[in-house]
Amino acid sequence: MREYENQTEISETENETCRRRCSHYSIKSSTGLFAVLLLAVSVVLEGQFVRDLTSGNFTAIAFATWYSRSWTIICYPIYCPIGMLFGKSLKDMWKEDSVVLQYQGQYLKGFIFKIIPVTIFLTGTYGFFFYAVKMVSLTDYVTILSVNIALIYILSVSWLREPVILIRTMAIFIAIGGVLFYAGSYKQNGSNELGIVITLISALMSALYRVYLKKILPDASISKTLLLLTAVSLTVMLSGWIFVLVFTATEFESINWDLMPWDTLNLTSALSVAIIGLTFLGTAISYPIYVAIGLLLGIPGNAIVDIAIHQIAFDNLKIVGAILISFSFLILLIPEDKAINFSKRITTSFTKLMLKCGQNDVLTDSTSHSYNNIVSSSSSYFFVDSKYNSGIAEASI
Length: 397
Hints:
Oligomer: single chain
Radius of gyration: 26 Å
Order of helices and strands: HHHHHHHHHHHHHHHH
Shape: globular
Distance between the termini: 39 Å
Helix content: over 70%
Number of domains: 2
Largest sheet: none
């Protein structure tokens, strides 16, 4: 009787643990969905304003990068009054959140191993973004940039030790297939080799930025995330002007204060704040791959803007690409536990099919050679036999 009660208690504990895990994954998925939608809208708007900003003879890219990145210094100061409304004091908030600025209990090490790498990856992403848009079309840039989804997945598996899930891997290839349809539609019109190289560098910096952020903020709260973002922006503001002076002094860039498009620059900076904030929050409290999908949705979003405003035709290749990207987005919304179970079913079904085909080959071969009582030694027989004996029928991803 006592043993039965113990088993019942264990079963209830396991069920409660399972419910908590499912609830946790559901919250992360819902948060990721909300962040992705906002991110996609912000990406489309920012891209259109950046295209207007960098058109013509505007070359003050370093200044625009430094100026726009400095805006995000306001994130944590905006959060502090909200935290005080919920009964927290500034001292308590700093004591709780300042841990994110430390590494092994030291602020100096935290600055070296946390702040500096994120600052480099972040400013590099946007600096190369401004340069690339001057050389390639905006849609070409967004299309080429989307290859970072593959880089993010690889880095997440290797750095963050995230599980390799079959269905998510399939979603990545589906998304890349959609991007290829877009690339085939545009045929790189007006692009040059240097612009493509700069775009690929921006994609690499973007992937490193998001995955490294997740590595140093595995389970960070919103307040910690915003504090780190403010620290990164402060670092950019205090050090970025040096590059502006160097580029201007060497005449690599020129700044004409009388013709500076301040309205467009301010709107671009405000949208950049929204994108970076959503990227920080989405990466810290959800999955990095969701953020990448949000950026991918900027491709059909920009296409819609081009149709409505710039009267650009939307051909069949673009339609297929949009469908594939949207389908991959829906696949990646599946919670991790359900994605794992579904992947197991796919793997098991595929394995059974392979075993059945292999066994049919064995029967066919043995029948054709039965007249001389020779057992078939075909490669398919040994493949099936060895894999079956090794337990591949129960393999899962």
